[in-house]
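Progress against Task 2.4 (sequence-to-structure conversion) is shown through the following example record, which the project officer requested during the mid-term review.
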Amino acid sequence: MECEYFEKLKDKDFGDLIGETKYWLIILAPDQRNLGTCVVALKREETELSSLNPDEWADLLNTVQKLEHAVKKAFKATMFNWACLMNSCYLHDPPTPFLHWHFIPRYKSPFVFQGKKFEDPCFGMSTMYDRERSFKLSEELKNKIKVEIIKYLEI
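Structure tokens generated for the chain above:
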């Protein structure tokens, strides 16, 4: 599941690759304050959302459906937020944005996974209201989250 473009992302502590489709990488985000948070990144360098071709859009739709299904099955997420924040991550100097989506599961009720309680205190609002709290995981717990998502991902 390694790809040349992901090697560039790994250098930026962007997260752990958990799956890929023809056009997209699915990466478990380092911050798991919302259990199952991922980044979905285009597998080629691109700076404009409007530059996606029809095949990339179709593959993104498939990826959205598969990832939402997997995280709902794995962790009982209530719903999902998606954000495309092009200016928040850079790979080059001078800075160049790259096309990626933030996938943020939302939870109306706390969820316990592997003995760890995950809460969503901003449910019903943007997670931008909760920027101070981050949730770093042990390698063991992070790997268990990855395995649980992959079990249901079906890609």
